[in-house]
What we know:
- It is a single chain.
- This protein is mainly α.
- It has one domain.
- It contains 5 helices and no strands.
- It has helices spanning 8-13, 19-28, 35-44, 50-63, 70-84.
- The longest helix has 15 residues, at 70-84.
- The radius of gyration is 13 Å and the shape is globular.
- The N and C termini lie far apart (41 Å).
Amino acid sequence: xxxxxxxxxxxxxxxxxxxxxxxxxxxxxxxxxxxxxxxxxxxxxxxxxxxxxxxxxxxxxxxxxxxxxxxxxxxxxxxxxxxxxx
Length: 86
């Protein structure tokens, strides 16, 4: 059985995200465990800019509650590192 490789652009194309946010996620994609979950969080928070993205991630990480698991928090930290470069 042949498995088709995942096209990274296809993963993000199904989400209505602003282009600069997609660019950050595309850069971080090789390091993320669950890009789909991160994209859904960004959509739920109605994030439109990179500054809003950074603020949302800081807010989630500072709460230190159990709403998000360690993998999601790690993915958010990775996205934050790439967002800081923009």
